[in-house]
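Why does residue order matter? Because the sequence determines the fold. Keep that principle in mind as you read this record.
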Amino acid sequence: MQYLPWRISRKIQSYSYESLSVVVIQLTNDANVDNTLNEAQRKINAVRSKLPTDVKEPSLSKFSLSDLPIISLGITSIFPHRSFTT
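Structure:
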C-alpha cells in the first residue's frame, strides 16, 4: 500500500476504540487540502473490499483552525435589550 507523501503531512495519529478507528492527518501549510482529501478517498476505496462486510462506510472530513472564530464574546447588561443593541 502506498502512503500519502510525507512532505504534505506534518503529523499522522491513529486512535482505535471498540467499534471505531480514527486517523488524523495534520497537513503542512503548503499542502493542497482538496487534492490530499481526494487521494485519501481513492486509497480508502482501493482497500474497501478488504474490510469486513458489516462495517459502516468510511468517511473523510476536513477541519481547519481558520474555520474557528477568532474570539467568542458574551455580554450581560442591566440595560433593556432595545437600548443595549442600538
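The radius of gyration is 21 Å.
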